[in-house]
Each structure stands twice: as structure tokens, then as C-alpha cells.
Design goal:
Length: 421
């Protein structure tokens, strides 16, 4: 298992480039493999463990996949299998994305029920409710979701849950509805940039989706979708992570390929702390001038502050004098990174769904262990800001969602070495 050895205290300077969005690539690769007649060529695909895992699932279902130089070629074969077995699905929750497309294409699907994960329980009731509204009969049996429908039929569906709209349910139902008979209206649809990117991709395949980027999506069913060529939107969470990297090291960094409209909430909160942001046509310059201020923040579905940036922002606030309060309203138990940050000298107390961060003047390097992807990101950020050496283990969590993180950060002055055990 790889480790990252980080010697902290280096100010980051220079230009760092953002790769394509992980959370857009996953459903887009599924749609291309199951819904499309003919091959698709997808550009700006990040080289990530999660993409590799998903391609293994798609190969089992019957798509040929080839990945080279950020381009993913997908060639669906004539016969598509309807079962996604436990051994594959357990490796990645996003495998649940095959459910809607398999139903739409084959009229049946058998997909292993994904479990919880390190960031808390993650139910799929909204996915099931949405597909049932489209006419599917669904039962849970022996750990599998078994779904059947002669033909999905367009209808009106409200997808809001107790924690707001669901990204995954919106994507699953939207993909299923593209080939349904009639029009499907999804109310309280998730509006995250990767949901919109999926909708744009589906339209490029010949789907007819209106309201992209709003909370009401209208999907007019079509008879057939075809393969297409497409380029994935830059990753907003990788962008935000690099913006915080610049801030936490007191650096001066240009984050290239940053998309301003996908980062408004993150930019607003960074600006509130006093971080200087200068947006240009192809990215954002991030630097520090003077003292930073403690702030409060609450995660919310897009366009609110993203849960996937909560950990990274907590890392920054842990070294800003004063008291900051962070409330996690999306994945309400997502505080696994707190114990590790505290081991590095942070002073963070969790109560219920909130964390109170008492800013300290400095973190100190320590051996630490990653519990999930974004916890991994903040521990790398904290290691770069800390005095001394930090050794990060269980790096595979980070590799799921960040493309060559140590290489990119070393390119702007970080001292990070990957050690292969
Ligand atoms: N929820 C339900 N029922 C459902 C589905 C979700 O109650 O059927 C709840 C969840 O428990 C959570 C909230 O609704 O409290 C939002 O969950 P959502 O369905 O939006 O999450 P997801 O689709 O499983 C995606 C991202 C996550 C990201 C969330 C929220 C992908 C592959 N994953 O997950 O990304 O945190 O949306 O934005 O797109 C990450 O990249 O680190 C990551 C965890």
C-alpha cells in the first residue's frame, strides 16, 4: 500500500491544472456503455482508480473500454448483461448508476445493493422511488435490487429527500427516462455541475432534456440514443481543493481550467476568510495578503457549499485564528477527518452535525491514516501546511478521486514523495 511522505512548510507557487470531473465521468461512461447504439469517445477523462473500477463493471456488462491519454473509448457490444454482481459493486457505490440505464435498455436489471461507507449511511430509496414512478417493479432480495419493466413510462417525480435533492437518484432517473415513453418531469432535481454535464452528454447522444442546471428537468423520451464525442467538464472539487492548497500554504497559485459558475459558493467562503481570488478566462489566481478570518459555513446541495469541500475547508479554518463553525447538512456524519486533524494539533470538536474549529497557530506533522477520499485530500493539505513530516497511509482512497495528486502539487513547490511499500 502506497504512502505519501510530505515535508510541510513550503509555500506553493505556480500554475496547477484541473482534470476532468470524476463525478461527471462515472454516469457518462455508464450512459455511453448501456444506453447508446454505437461507440463514444469521451475526452478530458481523469486517470483515477474509480474510473478504472467502473470500466471493470462496464466490461462485465458488455462494453469494450479503452483509456489512453485522458480519452476513454467506449464500444457497447450487441449483448448487454443485466446483472452487476456484488464483487464489483461493493468496490464503488457509483455502480448503482447502471440500474436506470439497464432498465431502460433491457427492461430488467439485477444490481447488488450498495452498502454504507466511511462517510455514513447512504440509502438509495430515492433511486428506487424514482424508477418505480417510471413504472418499474422493484424488489430487494438476497442483497440485490431486482428491477423489471416492459417499458418505462414518463411521469412526474419529486426527488427531494430529507437531506435535499439526490445527485445519484437524479442521474439514475434521468438516464432511465431518456428512453421512456412520453415525458418525465423531475422536480427538486439535483443541480450539481456533474448532473448538468451528464444531461448535456445525453443530449449529445440524441436525448431531449430541458431545464438543464435548474431544479426542474423535463426529459422527453426518445426511441434511440447513439454514441457521441464529448469532453468532460473540469472537476469543481479538485479545483476547490487546489484553491485551498494555495491558501493553507500562504502561496500564490493559478488554478487552470477552473469554471467560476461551478465554484461560486466555494469562492464566496474563501473570500470571506480574506483569501484573494482573481478570476480570468481560463482559471483563478489564489493568494494571501494579510491575516485570514474565521468563518461559519454550512454544506448544502448545489448551488450551496459542497459537502465534498467540507473537509478541505475545515483544514484551512483549523489554522485561522478564532472560532469557525461548520455544519454538515448533506452527509451528516462526514467528520472522519477530524480525529486525524486533531492528531496533527488542530482543535476541532464535533457535536451532532456541527464541528467547532478553534484555530491554532500551526499544525505539526504526524503519521496519519486516510478514511475516505475527501478526508485524504484535507490530510494532504494539512501535511503541506504543518511543521515537520507527515506520512499519509491508505493513499488508495485519494487515488480514487485525485489524478496524480503528489505530481501535480510537487509541480507548484510541494515536497511530497510517494513511497511504494
Ligand atoms: N439520500 C437519500 N436517499 C437516496 C439518495 C440519497 O436519503 O436515495 C441522501 C444521502 O444519504 C445524502 C443526500 O441524500 O444525505 C445526498 O446524497 P446524494 O444522493 O446526492 O449523493 P450520491 O449521489 O450518493 C454524489 C457524489 C458524492 C457527493 C454527493 C453529494 C458521485 C459519484 N458521488 O453522491 O461524492 O458527496 O453526491 O454532492 O457523484 C465524493 O466525490 O467524495 C463524493 C462522496
Amino acid at each position: 500500500m502506497d504512502k505519501l511522505v510530505i515535508n510541510g512548510g513550503k509555500q506553493l507557487e505556480g500554475t496547477i491544472s484541473v482534470s476532468g470531473s470524476k463525478n461527471a465521468t462515472l454516469p457518462i461512461a455508464v450512459a455511453a456503455s448501456i444506453l447508446g447504439d454505437g461507440s463514444s469517445v469521451i475526452h478530458n477523462v481523469p486517470d483515477l482508480r474509480d474510473v478504472e473500477t467502473l470500466c471493470a463493471v462496464l466490461e462485465v456488462l458488455g462494453a469494450g473500454t479503452k483509456f489512453k491519454d485522458s480519452t476513454l473509448h467506449i464500444a457497447p457490444r450487441n449483448e448487454i448483461a443485466f446483472e452487476a454482481p456484488y464483487d464489483l459493486v461493493r468496490k464503488m457505490r457509483a455502480s448503482i448508476y447502471v440500474l436506470g440505464p439497464l432498465l431502460a435498455r433491457l427492461g430488467r436489471a439485477k444490481v447488488s445493493f450498495p452498502g454504507g461507507c466511511a462517510i455514513g449511511p447512504r440509502p438509495i430509496d430515492l433511486h428506487i422511488k424514482g424508477l418505480e414512478h417510471l413504472g418499474a417493479k422493484i424488489e430487494i432480495k438476497e442483497g440485490y435490487i431486482i428491477a423489471q419493466a416492459d417499458r418505462l413510462i414518463g411521469t412526474e417525480i419529486d426527488l427531494s429527500g430529507i437531506h435535499g435533492p439526490s445527485v445519484g437518484a437524479t442521474a439514475n432517473v434521468m438516464m432511465g427516462a431518456t428512453l421512456a415513453r412520453g415525458t418525465t418531469t423531475i422536480r427538486n432535481a439535483a443541480r450539481e455541475p456533474h448532473v448538468s454535464d451528464l444531461a448535456n452528454f445525453l443530449n449529445a447522444m440524441g436525448a431531449d432534456i430541458d431545464g438543464i442546471g435548474t431544479s426542474v428537468l423535463k426529459i422527453h423520451g426518445v426511441k434511440q440514443l447513439r454514441g457521441t464525442e464529448y469532453s468532460i467538464v473540469p472537476d469543481d472539487i479538485e479545483t476547490g481543493t487546489f484553491m485551498v492548497a494555495a491558501a493553507i500554504t500562504g502561496g500564490d497559485v493559478f488554478v487552470k481550467n477552473a469554471v467560476p459558475e461551478n465554484l461560486e459558493a466555494v469562492s464566496e467562503k474563501l473570500t470571506e476568510t480574506g483569501v484573494q481570488l482573481n478570476w480570468t478566462d481560463d482559471g483563478v489566481r489564489v493568494r494571501i495578503r494579510g491575516e485570514l478570518r474565521a468563518i461559519d459555513l454550512r454544506t448544502e446541495p448545489f448551488p450551496g457549499f459542497p459537502t465534498d469541500m467540507q473537509a478541505q475547508m475545515m483544514g484551512l479554518l483549523s489554522v485561522i485564528p478564532g472560532i469557525s463553525v461548520i455544519t454538515e447538512a448533506v452527509h451528516t456524519d462526514r467528520f472522519m477527518h477530524v480525529a486525524e486533524l486533531n492528531r496533527m494539533g488542530a482543535d476541532i470538536r464535533v457535536r451532532g452535525h456541527s464541528a467547532t474549529v478553534h484555530g491554532v497557530s500551526k499544525l505539526s506533522g504526524a503519521p496519519i491514516m486516510v478514511s475516505d477520499l475527501r478526508a485524504g485530500a484535507v490530510l494532504v493539505l494539512a501535511g503541506m501546511a504543518a511543521a515537520g513530516q507527515t506520512v499519509v497511509s491508505r493513499v488508495y482512497h485519494i487515488d480514487r478521486g485525485y489524478e496524480r495528486i503528489e505530481k501535480k502539487l510537487t509541480g507548484i513547490g510541494a515536497d511530497i514523495v510517494r513511497v511504494v511499500d
